[in-house]
Model the fold of this input.
Amino acid sequence: MSGPVIYWRDRILAFTPGESVAHALTRAGIAAFGPGPVGVPRAVFCGIGQCQMCLVQIDGRTVEACLTLCRDGLRVGPEQEINHD
Amino acid sequence: MTKAQVLVVGAGLAGVGAAVELARAGQPVLVADRAPRAGGAIHRQPLPGRAAISSHAARWDRLIAEAQALPIDWAFETKFAGLDHTGTALLSGATNRLMRPAALVLALGAREAVRPRTGWTLPNVTTAGALQIELKTQGLAPQGRVLLAGNGPLLIAVAAQMTRLGNPPVAIVESAAPFAHPLHSLALPLSYLREAAGYMATLIRARVPILTRAEVVAIRAEGTALSVRVETPKGPRVFTVDRVGLHDGIRKNDGGVTACAAVPVLALGDCAEVLGARAALASGRAGGIALARALTNGTPRETVPSTTLVRERAAQQRLARIYAHDAMARLADLPGGTVICRCEGGTLDDLRALGPTPRVRELRLLGRFGMGPCQGRSCGEWVARASADDPGLPPPDTPLGRARWPLAPIAIADLIAATSDTGAAPLPSEGT
Done:
């Protein structure tokens, strides 16, 4: 794949410069960003950084996917890793 | 020492309008916004090379050209985390900075209200505004089968914008009966009528069904799709869609707006009163002029009453009557397990367990309502309405108490890394 990409778990996603992580994930058909701490799934809701529902992990930090811009090579994961038993 | 900057939070119509007037009057200005570009919600700019969707583009182009010709500093991708009692503001993100501004202008705009419904926390269920942001930045309609539901003119606007971009929504589900009041509607300002007529012509041509006095009562995940149960005056209907956009009106985004004895704080535009784009620009400019005069002369701030605000207030009140409905009462009929607080997972049953008229302390400490990272911005209204005798009455301004800083979660690393230009020795210890 030429052009800049971000990584979501084992997937490689192309993005347009200036695009938010939330939009790059949404365009790739990824709507569920993992489980939240209390059973409400992580996903885009308000889209403006108010509701704190779209939290993901980037570089060891918990950030809002809707406010964070894609940068080449960014590794994005769920806020909490899922336990696959 | 150089003159302290005025900190303007929010780079939409109100914020940029205020910044322009402050800079023109010789005040140093810093405008901070979480977005990567100026524009706010109304004039959110597309990705480079994509088509612009927002209407009234000329208004924004004129304003931003004015701003670019003036010495204004900008801090994008930057959160305003709050203002403490000493008048020190914290910016966090691309710009990490502790500063002591000459004044703080809050131009945070509006936020959407979304009434809880069964299944409203599922992925692919967002606010209608989130769909509109996607549409405006991508220059493309959100893909898949989309249902728009709730209350207010934004639903029609988003539906028409989606239709023009080639993906009309499956339907619009509207709580009110806005077309039942043609005489009320005709008394709206001509600009409102023209915009509405344009949207309606698009929707009628594309045969987008608009169900009025109708309610989304439950959303369920079915494989990768969503099954949406709608109650209409003619009986129940079920829609199978990929995405749902919910919207139950606009509220001022005033969470955390605090008065401070150490520095003047001024709220402008929709975060002071939701009156829409024209009023936001007028409010921003008038506020900027008044603040600059007060700072220059060291006199109290005097804001000149604006005829634009009076006119827009009357129009908004008329719109509210056209879109009035009694669906708030449905809050009481929701299943007890419906999530009210999305942050902490608090349900209607959790709220009822606190008794008939819980106090703020009980709501927070026992119910955990307002204790999550959104600080009750999403649930406050519903907690107040659901515990009120009449859920239809407007809720109090801060039903879950005042927001605390940081207004949004920030990283400790950013706080430590923040450059301090407060011009002060280490902050005085509290209580001395």
Q: What stands out?
A: Chain B has three domains: 6-111+251-317, 125-248, 326-387. The interface with chain A takes residues 34-37, 41, 47-48, 50, 77, 79, 111-112, 114, 121-127, 129-131, 133-134, 137-138, 143, 253, 255, 339, 342-345, 372-374, 377-378, 408-409, 411, 413 of chain B (CB under 8 Å).
